[in-house]
């Protein structure tokens, strides 16, 4: 097997297909969760963000108002604020009273946790004094009992929530922490109502809840735990988190449920399933509103836009009654903070400093509007199959396509992926995009890069092997299909050209070494360009001689025509060169060109030390002989019979039938005059007369032949003076020494 045939085995579609399948398998493994590729997860997050931003409704949702514990509210009382956080809970009780009774809001949700007792009133200190230092002092005990309700700020805060639509927030601790503080609300669902076999939720043991007296006084409670993706961005929230035997709602879900009547959550099952089947729950029924969930009970946050997608009012302005009563009537109020010092600024798709309270607002709006998007349990399976099918399809297809066709196919594939993904997204389903896009893109890039680097390597190899023989554009063509070209010897039909400068020895003796080198380069360069221009291969330079051939290494069905056209163009180039040579004071040149076609051996030939890409065979030898006898006939170009037969539109003069040195069989040789439509009338007339004269010569009709050649010499001298004189000379010799009746009209050369 030749080098390039080995190269074909290595550098072919098999390698591309195998590489493509490896790439596809990598992404299939990622989609199947057999390996974890954080880059794909990160890319999926960014692509989700792009879809979210593209489709976000924007504007302000006036149904929900954020009562902001802002920098203004944290100023001292003298400056119109309430002081630093945490505030005494009598002030929070006043805030509740303002919102619920004065402004008639629909709901109050606290993105705040009240896990510690409020001791700011001093009631605890007074009780300690009464029970220790002044124990038994009835007057103090009486006065303290009168003051206690007023100084029990937690009690006042709890009373302000009693029988009111107030929802408190609490937090679950990370999975590794088990400490429990405060009290939890009643779970939204129990594991009996939603069996563990149906879902795979987040499970938490530790939590920080509110004081029991506060939680029990509120309408409900909800956790404030978002899911933070690996890139630090909050895109999802667990709507329910399991703790022991219950599922606890998020603050947004608890608020929406309270707002919609406080009815128990219902389960909406997928058709044909039962509640204990994994993935059977399609959505939660929240007071008549369907909230889509997946098996992890997680939902995407339907961000409306950036910061302040909801109205903000300073908490101190509410307490100090600086708000228009109509501004809050029947509004959903969430109490949270934008103050940097209170550390509730989060990273979201829209901002790196997004108030956490606004995340809950977006979720509440999404539940009410039915715009919560979900990633159902079947998404992972379909994504796995889609990546497998797409990856295998492109791995098998792209190696057969050219780069442009591959780009078109990949672009169409990417467009289908994007269109389908966006259609699903608009329908409320979040489908992974990065894996599919990556496998389509990387498979295309792999094929293009592989083709580019191997082609570049092939070009370098081809240039090293054939660059000294063929023009660069043919090297590029060969590099595209290196398996089609070999330097091993093979038999092939070619056309071979030899050219030589007549009288070069005399010319070289008249020039110094430097000038001679310039002189040789001056005519070899344009002659070489002519040969290259006509798809020829330079075999070698031998002083002033050029050896070239057509039909290898690149096959050329028109090798005879290209060879002869090169010969004609070399003569034209010679005329132009002579004009330049005369200007330089150099001697003009005349070249003789021999051209022959036939089956020869072509390939790397030589020794183990040095090889050369060349041709050998009888057809090569004849081409060399023809170049050597051009001067005998006064012709610039002589071609062999096989070349002549391949050019039916060539006008040529059969100048002789010869036996060259080393050959017993006579061959016809021709002087090409031009292709049909390019030969002058004079030359055509002379050609007809010459053919008659030649026939008389071969018939040994010496007198008739002599008369005709003399007529040609007298009337058409410019069309072949040397040729006509040659035959007149031969006639004189043969008349005196007849060749015999078996003579075939041929002439035998005894020198090369």
UniProtKB/TrEMBL annotation:
SMART domains: CHASE2, CYCc
One Gene Ontology MF term: adenylate cyclase activity
Keywords: Membrane, Transmembrane, Transmembrane helix
Gene Ontology biological-process entries: cAMP biosynthetic process; intracellular signal transduction
Family annotation (InterPro entries): A/G_cyclase, Adenylyl/Guanylyl_Cyclase_3/4, CHASE2, Nucleotide_cyclase
Entries under Gene3D superfamilies matching the protein: Nucleotide cyclase
Transmembrane in keyword set: yes
UniProt entry tagged with the keyword Transmembrane helix: yes
Parts of the chain that traverse the membrane: 377-397, 404-423, 429-453
Protein name: Guanylate cyclase domain-containing protein
Boundaries of every Guanylate cyclase domain copy: 495-627
């Amino acid at each position: 097997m030749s080098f390039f045939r080995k190269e074909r085995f290595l550098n072919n579609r098999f390698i591309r297909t195998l590489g493509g399948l490896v790439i596809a398998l990598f992404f299939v493994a990622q989609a199947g969760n057999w390996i974890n590729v954080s880059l794909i997860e990160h890319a999926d997050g960014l692509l989700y963000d792009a879809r979210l931003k593209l489709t976000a409704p924007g504007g302000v949702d006036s149904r929900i108002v954020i009562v902001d514990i802002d920098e203004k509210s944290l100023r001292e009382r003298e400056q119109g604020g309430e002081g630093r956080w945490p505030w005494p809970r009598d002030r929070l009780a006043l805030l509740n009273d303002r919102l619920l009774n004065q402004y008639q809001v629909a709901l109050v949700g606290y993105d705040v946790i009240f896990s510690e007792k409020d001791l700011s009133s001093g009631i605890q200190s007074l009780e300690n004094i009464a029970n220790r230092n002044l124990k038994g002092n009835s007057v103090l005990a009486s006065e303290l009992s009168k003051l206690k309700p007023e100084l029990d700020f937690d009690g006042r805060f709890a009373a302000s929530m009693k029988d009111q639509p107030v929802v408190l927030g609490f937090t679950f601790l990370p999975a590794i922490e088990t400490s429990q503080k405060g009290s939890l609300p009643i779970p939204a669902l129990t594991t009996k109502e939603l069996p563990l076999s149906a879902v795979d939720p987040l499970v938490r043991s530790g939590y920080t809840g509110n004081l029991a007296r506060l939680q029990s006084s509120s309408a409900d409670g909800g956790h404030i735990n978002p899911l933070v993706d690996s890139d630090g961005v909050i895109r999802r929230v667990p709507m329910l988190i399991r703790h022991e035997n219950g599922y606890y709602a998020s603050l947004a879900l608890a608020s929406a449920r309270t707002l919609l009547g406080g009815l128990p959550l219902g389960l909406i099952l997928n058709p044909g399933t039962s509640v204990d089947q994994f993935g059977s729950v399609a959505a939660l029924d929240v007071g008549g509103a369907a909230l889509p969930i997946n098996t992890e009970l997680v939902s995407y946050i339907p961000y409306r836009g950036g910061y302040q997608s909801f109205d903000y009012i300073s908490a101190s302005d509410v307490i100090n009654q600086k708000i228009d009563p109509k501004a809050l009537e029947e509004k959903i109020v969430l109490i949270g903070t934008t103050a940097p010092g209170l550390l509730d600024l989060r990273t979201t798709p829209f901002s790196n400093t997004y108030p956490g309270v606004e995340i809950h607002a977006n979720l509440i709006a999404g539940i009410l509007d039915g715009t919560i998007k979900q990633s159902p349990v079947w998404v992972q399976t379909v994504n796995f199959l889609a990546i497998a099918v797409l990856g295998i399809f492109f791995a098998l297809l792209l190696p057969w396509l050219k780069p442009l066709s591959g780009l078109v196919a990949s672009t169409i594939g990417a467009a289908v992926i994007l269109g389908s993904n966006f259609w699903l997204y608009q329908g409320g389903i979040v489908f992974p995009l990065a894996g599919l896009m990556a496998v389509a893109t990387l498979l295309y890039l792999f094929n293009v890069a592989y083709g580019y680097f191997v082609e570049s390597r092939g070009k370098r190899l081809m240039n090293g092997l054939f660059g000294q023989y063929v023009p660069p554009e043919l090297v590029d063509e060969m590099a595209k299909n290196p398996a089609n070209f070999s330097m091993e010897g093979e038999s092939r039909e070619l056309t071979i050209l030899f050219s030589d400068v007549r009288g070069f020895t005399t010319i070289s003796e008249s020039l110094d070494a430097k000038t001679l080198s310039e002189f040789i380069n001056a005519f070899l360069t344009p002659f070489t360009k002519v040969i290259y221009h006509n798809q020829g291969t330079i075999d070698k330079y031998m002083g002033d001689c050029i050896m070239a051939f057509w039909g290898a290494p690149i096959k050329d069905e028109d090798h005879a025509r290209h060879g002869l056209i090169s010969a004609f163009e070399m003569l034209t180039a010679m005329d132009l060169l002579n004009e330049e040579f005369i200007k330089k004071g150099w001697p003009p040149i005349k070249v003789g060109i021999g051209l022959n076609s036939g089956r020869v051996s072509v390939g790397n030939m030589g020794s183990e030390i040095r090889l050369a890409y060349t041709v050998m065979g009888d057809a090569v030898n004849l081409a060399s002989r023809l170049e050597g006898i051009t001067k005998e006939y006064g012709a610039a170009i002589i071609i062999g019979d096989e070349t002549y037969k391949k050019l039916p539109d060539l006008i040529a003069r059969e100048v002789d039938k010869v036996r060259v040195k080393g050959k017993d069989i006579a061959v016809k040789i021709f002087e090409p005059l031009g292709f049909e439509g390019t030969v002058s009338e004079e030359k055509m007339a002379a050609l007809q007369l010459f053919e008659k004269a030649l026939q008389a010569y071969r018939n040994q009709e010496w007198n008739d032949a002599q008369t005709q050649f003399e007529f040609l010499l007298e009337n058409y001298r410019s069309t072949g003076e040397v040729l006509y004189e040659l035959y007149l000379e031969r006639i004189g010799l043969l008349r005196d020494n007849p060749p015999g009746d078996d003579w075939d009209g041929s002439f035998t050369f005894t020198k090369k």
